[in-house]
Design goal:
single chain, alpha/beta, Alkaline Phosphatase, subunit A, Arylsulfatase, C-terminal domain, three-stranded parallel sheet, 8 helices, 9 strands, 24% helix, globular
């Protein structure tokens, strides 16, 4: 793991916030992953119990930032690595009255007094922004601005309003892209990545050519920390530190995805089970080839022009790669609706 390798190199390591890597009997705690200090939720850690603390999720980002800052202040004389995994804007969103106040003007025009989904979402997002701003301000006050890399990202596209615990608040936007959370279309897998390191990462730059992934974090952070990459690890990702520092290039390794379950929401967002991105091309398919879709992403980012019939050799090549990758995955349940976008059309 990133934390484990950095710990061996002398870094102090910590994780605060959402864990979600297992809870219940026998589930490993963060220290099994090389993390020395932690306080977590969605885990076996009993200290933060969302069901026991009123408005815990609404206040959670402040609590998580507080823990991170306390750890950092205790380790100013040593290199450190911190995972700060927020709960927001993940459902269930339940902002406080004070957090909702700036957005009362967005109230639905009803006599019932119901809150609008955009009110709830904006109030939650505003607090997330406020607390992360406080974190950055404190790092600057501690004199850490010029030697601290901050990476801000997310794990998937916005939640779908058809999911029950988000039916009151799923206002997040995938922008122009097709798909939302769980979908392998761009709206489900394309997420923000914001990097801050004054003097190292060019400020204000927007990179539109390079394709990065979460699997790139480990080799990239090893490179930045001056540590050798262990070839025996067989990493899926690649070092993209040059891109963070200003380069613009294509990636060297393909990216793969699999989703074995139902995709909530509208049929147009329901992607096939598998996807591969290599260069400009993205292939989505089911293992039985019942659906095959090929898109030139830079020229068709909304994934509306399926070119599979026009490029059979490319389909064959990409399909072989993603199917070979799928065989390396551990077995697990596959829901009957996985990869399907059937619609119950009316019949005579």
């Amino acid at each position: 793991t990133v934390a484990g390798l950095l710990k061996k190199a002398g870094y102090r390591t910590a994780h605060f916030g959402k864990w979600h890597l297992g809870s219940g009997p026998g589930a490993p705690m963060p220290d099994a992953y090389g993390i020395e200090v932690s306080k977590t939720v969605n885990s076996n850690d009993p200290r933060w119990r969302e069901d026991k603390i009123p408005y815990f999720r609404a206040h959670s980002t402040r609590l998580i930032v507080d823990e991170a800052l306390e750890f950092i202040k205790q380790n100013l004389d040593r290199p450190f690595y911190v995972n700060l995994w927020t709960l927001l804007p993940h459902a269930t969103l339940d902002p406080t009255k004070e957090q909702l106040e700036p957005f009362l003007k967005l109230s639905p025009q009803t006599a019932s007094g119901h809150l609008g989904a955009h009110q709830i979402y904006f109030a939650s997002l505003r607090d997330l922004d406020t607390q992360l701003g406080r974190l950055i301000d404190e790092l600057d006050k501690l004199g850490l601005k010029d030697n601290t890399l901050i990476l801000f990202s997310s794990d998937n596209g916005p939640e779908d309003i058809h999911i029950r615990n988000a039916s009151h608040s799923a206002f997040g936007s995938p922008g122009p892209f097709r798909g939302r959370k769980r979908s392998l279309y761009e709206g489900g897998i394309r997420v923000p990545l914001i990097a801050r390191w004054p003097g190292k990462v060019p400020a204000g730059r927007v990179e539109t050519r390079s394709v990065l992934s979460g699997v790139d974090f480990l080799p990239t952070l090893l490179k930045i920390a001056g540590l050798p990459e262990d070839a025996t690890l067989g990493l899926d990702g690649e070092d993209v530190s040059d891109i963070l520092f200003g380069a613009s290039r294509g990636r060297r390794k393909p990216l793969f995805w699999e989703w074995r379950f139902t995709i909530a929401g509208y049929n147009i967002n329901r992607s096939p089970m598998l996807a591969i991105r290599e260069g400009d091309w993205k292939l989505l398919l089911n293992p039985d080839f019942s659906r095959v879709e090929l898109y030139d992403i830079p020229r068709d980012p909304m994934e509306l022009n399926n070119l599979a019939d026009r490029r059979p050799e490319l389909v064959k090549d990409l399909a072989a790669k993603v199917l070979a990758w799928q065989k390396t995955l551990p077995p697990g349940p596959i829901e009957p609706a996985a990869g399907k976008n059937d619609y119950p059309w009316p019949k005579d």
